[in-house]
Structures are given as C-alpha cells and as structure tokens.
C-alpha cells in the first residue's frame, strides 16, 4: 500500500495549547486518511484522538530561560531518543507544534535525514531572534501560522507558509452565552464576576498569585458584590492556589479545569500572559494581563524582544487594547486599578468587544482542516 493511502504521521507537542492544536489536526488528518497512524509526543487530547506518545508531554513543559537550564540534560536526552525513533520509523511527515526551542531541533535533524517537516504555530521570530528564520527556511518544508501578520513575515523571507487561522476561533461561538456559563458553574444570581487565571505552570502560579491575591483583596473592598472564580489547570495547581488563598476571607470559588467556562461567565478577566488571552479575546472579555519572569530570564529577554506588546490581543490588534502589567509594573494595586477601569467603563467594554469580534471573524474558518490540507500537500510533494 502506498504511504499516502495510510501514512504514518509524527506530531510533537510540548504544551497544553499544542496538545489542543495537535488533537484537532489529527482528527482532520484522520478524515482524510482513516487508517493513518500517529506517533510522537502529545498530551491527553492527542492521545484521545489516537496518537501513541513516546513519553509524557509534561516532561517538555518548562517555564522561562533560566528554569530550562536545570532541565537541559534531560531535554537533550529526550530529543535524541525522539529523533532516533523518528529516523527508525521514517514517517511520511514530522509535524512539530509550537515549543520551538525543543521542536525545531527535532525538525532540523529530521529534515537533514530526508524526512518532510511541517511546523505548526510560528515562533515569535517577528518579535525577537529574527535570525532564526534562516534555520526555519532550511529545516521546515511548510510553516503553518495561526495569525495573518505571521504569514506575511514568512512570505517576505521566502519561507513556504500557510495561514490557517486558529482552531479556537472555530470552537468558540461568535456570541457568548454568559448566563449559561454562570448557570453551569453554579453562579446564578451572583453579582459581577472576575475570572482569575494565574497560569497553568507551577512557576507562573508561584510568581503571580501573591499579586493576584492582593488585587482581589483590594477589589473586594472596592466592590463588595464582586465574585472571584479561579480555574485550576490540574490537581497540582489546585493545591498551589488553595495554599495561596489560605486564611484569605474572599468570596472565591476555585474550580477544577473549565477555564473557558469561567472566562465565559466573567465580566472581566485577570490573567497570566499566554494562549489563554486568545480565548479571552474570542470570548469578547475585557481583561488585564500580568506576567513576571525570573529576574535573569527577563533581563535576557528584554534585550532581545522587539515587540511592543506581550499579550496576544494587543499583538493581533496592533494597539494597546488591554492593560499589560509586566515585571516591576505588576503589583496588586496596579492590577486592581486596571480591573476597576473595566468595571467602571461599560462604553469602553462595548468598544473592546467590537474590536475582538472583528479579530474573531478573521481567525475563523476551519483551521484544522486547512492545516491538514497543507500537510497533505507536503506529503504529496516530491521535495522543495
């Protein structure tokens, strides 16, 4: 049987957001090739879609530059093990998903050994370390971008690229049922709701919860009817959040998972920078974005980053629509004031929702199917 009739396809993801994208892509590829086999590295969603993972994806989830250093020997060992496995099995294509510091190294070796490669989710080459585009042009047969401004960058640098949009834009309806989300979380009849998302990694939660808790305390004094809801990404984050809230007399509800439902139920969202900010945009929610890295990581990144913004809503709209509080600018007082700015400005919230709706419409349109079509094109190509 020809390989394109039932191809062996490798997908490598390193984070929860990549697992979501990978699962959608596997499902779209299976509609094209019902008997295709999927190997590589993924999380629970990709496993449910039918992928056999060589090792748990969580082993690749490390936050920050200096935080990675202590894990480098293990990361290098895992990458060697993964590449050796791919070279032995010779899949029809190797699809690396986000986590570029790990996955592009896989793509480099796989491509050098004659395997076809696709990278899904552009690294932020337009913002920092632009020299990486040379390696991408050499090692990647097709770049799949989530956002149109990224595709324009690659076209300018002669890298084969397909703008696919974002699967979340397809999953999330243009109109959000806030009342239904509140009912589902048992928040019927409550006053206004602030969703608090301190991140999915232990390092993020440790850095952000003290300031987020301080902000909630300040907001509780200012708006006694304001409810706080925090979704915990997993059991470990739940324990971390519960510990941070111990002895805090705040009207806080901590739920397991359900981050999207919590944001849908909210009037305003206070959150860590990351992929969840895109979900907030698609849910049309006013938000305040906070982030803090370790001092050394931030010192390095601040010298390399060329972008004016860190939050995806601001990057996509190319203007400061939502407050970003990073490093020294991040404090409980600043967060509380920024959240209050949304709570007290319904006209501003309405304008923001209009901007977010336009972005949602631009990103919507079958991302997983478009990605699968691009992968099929690469499998069918005789080489670049």
TrEMBL record:
Which InterPro entries does the protein's record reference?
Answer: Glyco_trans_19
Any keyword Metal-binding?
A: no
Task: Report the enzyme's class at the first EC level.
Answer: transferase
Lipid biosynthesis: present as a keyword of the record? Answer: yes
Pathway the protein contributes to: Bacterial outer membrane biogenesis; LPS lipid A biosynthesis
Q: Which keywords does this chain's UniProt record carry? A: Glycosyltransferase, Lipid A biosynthesis, Lipid biosynthesis, Lipid metabolism, Transferase
Might you give the EC number(s) for this enzyme? Answer: 2.4.1.182
Task: State a single Pfam family of this protein.
Answer: LpxB
Lineage, top-rank taxon, reads: Bacteria
Q: Which reaction does it catalyse?
A: a lipid X + a UDP-2-N,3-O-bis[(3R)-3-hydroxyacyl]-alpha-D-glucosamine = a lipid A disaccharide + UDP + H(+)
Role description: Condensation of UDP-2,3-diacylglucosamine and 2,3-diacylglucosamine-1-phosphate to form lipid A disaccharide, a precursor of lipid A, a phosphorylated glycolipid that anchors the lipopolysaccharide to the outer membrane of the cell.
**Family assignment?**
Belongs to the LpxB family.
Q: What is this protein called?
A: Lipid-A-disaccharide synthase
Instruction: Give the organism's phylogenetic lineage.
Output: Bacteria, Pseudomonadati, Pseudomonadota, Gammaproteobacteria, Oceanospirillales
